[in-house]
Amino acid sequence: MARSVTLSSASVLALGGGLAWLVGSSALDAGLGTVVLAAGLALTVWLAVTAGRHGGDRPLERWRSKRLVQLAVLGVVLVVAASVLLGLVGYGELGVPVAFFVVGALLVPAASTLDDRSWLLLGAVLMVLAALGGLLALNSAGALYPRGLVGLGAGLLLWGASAHRSGLLRGISQLR
Length: 176
Prior knowledge:
Elements: H1 9-25, H2 30-54, H3 62-88, H4 95-114, H5 118-138, H6 144-166, H7 168-174
């Protein structure tokens, strides 16, 4: 008998933050990058497990789930196509900012699918961060700005959204 696995939105955000952190830490030097990556992976696992315990998400209707899967597939196709095309025309350094811009842009229709406006804010901030990283990539040498700044910044944003969605930030504010 097959069992379906469901992830809370906070767990998905935590995993997305970990992936973004992985991309961002790859721009750092080997020693520092390894330490930053290890700390980020530990935080990702902790957030995903903690968010999974709190749950709190309502089950999605079938059409909403289908729409979210369609958006995810569209995002993967757009990111791969953009990365390949940018590499072909000599602007490969824009691959990471464009990828996070696509993720932010796809959070806009996801917000209407989920009936939750907070996804709009996260998408808008990701798009602004990606645009800033793209501008810095065109005016600098190396991968620190396009991969490091955008990846680490997006990781922090996604982890913050995960902590908010799982109620961890509410728990911290009640400690005062």
